[in-house]
Amino acid sequence: MNNAKSYDQSVPDANEFLDAREIWRTKLGANEPLRSHAIELVVESNKHNYGYQWEWCGVPIIRHPDDIVLQQEIVWSLKPTRVIETGVARGGSLVLSASLMSMIGTAPRVLGLDIQILPHAHGSLKRWTDEGGIELFEGDSTSDAAISRVETFINNVSEPCLLILDSNHSHEHVLNELNSLAPLLPIGSIVIVADTIVEEMPENYYPNRPWGKGNNPYTAAQRFLKLNGNFEMDLRWSRRSLLGECRDGILRRTK
Question: What predicted TM-score, i.e. pTM, was given to this entire model?
Fold first, then answer.
């Protein structure tokens, strides 16, 4: 009995634990040597296609586990009424968003946009598209047609939405997505700009891609924030994910 009482006294209560975690998170986010080691680990794990090995509800999801958990925290906190994602790939991210919306007690409303949606993705998503939780749009995510589709999908809701940008990672394309789609979101909405990690990767790491250091989602997000006073970096989330791919890429609409 005395042992149990002693253990109880040594465990911080909810408020103490919350305060302690804020300190840990701040120190973690500011630890640049640790982040450098994390990038080294990402480079090594990429040799085994680590980010391609995961599934969500049986559907391949091209995400690192850190970012999957981070999105869960964001959805649980934000309670979005709509989720819009650019970049469908194999469909797992859309299923993640739909299942998280179900978890918070909201009817799933997820829109995925991609320049090309391949048959295997349609097959993997059939259950969710048939049941109405996920909708798909094939076309350039910055086109007039895509913008119109997103406007219709949001349908003037006033509650926050979540926008995830994970398609073409060039500066120009991501900046165009931000300029075209982010202003459609209600105040309080969050934008996850994926793969800002490109800026932290070694020089010439993407020789066959139209992006790299100085030309990537991070540079686009920084430019967007400089030009747009209605958004700011959401510091609650931007450095939470040590091995994640969206460091300093989570934005919130403030006005």
Answer: 0.95
